[in-house]
Design brief:
The chain is built from 10 helices and 17 strands. By secondary structure, the protein is an alpha/beta fold.
């Protein structure tokens, strides 16, 4: 199933949209509106059981009350209510959902049980999920900013995926500072459904992308990743940085997203077999991105000529 609804939806519902500027539900809705998504043929639906409107957009008590189809749901509500919200998405025939809410596998055994329930509901209705416990998704070409990270990064030839929301936020900071241009950005979170392998398949033939960047904490199906990455790396460079190399790092990864980090030797061999370029540090990841990105367009009429030193020449 294509993941296109995550990147080029016509209609987006924000489940948990809030009138409080300090809440994530407000930030997500505001980013969608300020990022330029709302146009004549595109709609944003705030879902809030009590508010009449938020940021000038009329609210609905449920996705089931929204007239017409919805392509993408962004869920920003407390974790106990998330499975029921996804079930309503299924009844509404929404094909894709981003679950920003935390409190799942990364929270321990009970959270893992909640995540299994969430995935069962999604599969029952054939909904593709990104998350839970994630920052969200950005597509600068649509444009779509379905995250709670403020600001739309400049467009460019690079796609970035990460399990770590904190590292994803750092990449967005680099982009906002003009150090690289992004076409697509995905914070995977716990990867209950959509994984790095799914995104590699989705992005392989995307003409807007010259290089795919990945921050990886764990790969539950390493063999499938190798098969897909081998094919994709023949079409465009795939650069990855792997966390959890030390014992302390592996423990941190497990506590962060509930991922099993695996051995350093196994990942080194897997990347070599798949033709994936290994970066050892974030700075090296950025250097590879710039080397393969060539010319990185910035907003307006300016073009940044990127160099391995990391600074744009205007």
């Amino acid at each position: 199933m294509s993941l296109s609804h995550f990147f080029a939806p016509r209609t987006v519902a924000v489940i948990g949209a809030s009138t409080d500027p300090t809440k994530l539900g407000y930030a997500v809705l505001n980013n969608l509106l300020q990022g330029g998504f709302l146009k004549e043929d595109r709609r944003v639906y705030p879902i809030n059981p009590t508010a009449k409107s938020i940021l000038g957009q009329p609210c609905f008590k449920s996705v089931l009350a929204v007239p017409g189809p919805i392509d993408l749901a962004v869920i920003v509500i407390p974790y106990p209510a998330v499975p029921d919200a996804v079930r309503e998405c299924g009844e509404k025939a929404i094909p894709a959902a981003i679950v920003i809410s935390a409190g799942f596998r990364e929270a321990g055994w009970e959270g893992a049980e909640r995540e299994r329930e969430l995935l069962e509901v999604a599969r029952q209705f054939s909904i593709r999920l990104i998350g839970p416990n994630c920052l969200g998704v950005i597509d600068t070409l649509t444009p779509l900013n379905a995250t709670f990270s403020a600001g739309m990064p400049p467009s460019g030839p690079m796609a970035f995926m990460s399990q770590s929301g904190a590292l994803g936020a750092a990449i967005l900071d680099w982009a906002m500072a003009g150090r690289l241009g992004l076409s697509k950005f995905v914070s995977l979170g716990n990867k209950a459904d959509v994984s790095e392998t799914d995104l590699l398949q989705e992005w392989a033939a995307d003409p807007a992308l010259r290089v795919i960047l990945a921050y990886i904490e764990g790969l539950p199906d390493g063999q499938q990743f190798i098969r897909v990455a081998r094919e994709v790396s023949r079409q465009k460079p795939v650069v990855a940085i792997k966390s959890g190399i030390t014992h302390a790092g592996a423990r941190a990864v497990t506590s962060h997203t509930g991922s099993l980090a695996g051995s350093e030797q196994a990942y080194q061999a897997a990347f070599r077999q798949a033709g994936v370029i290994r970066a050892d540090t974030l700075e090296e990841l950025l250097d590879f991105a710039l080397a393969f990105g060539y010319l990185t367009p910035l907003r307006g009429d300016r073009v940044a000529i990127v160099t391995n030193a990391g600074g744009p020449g205007i």
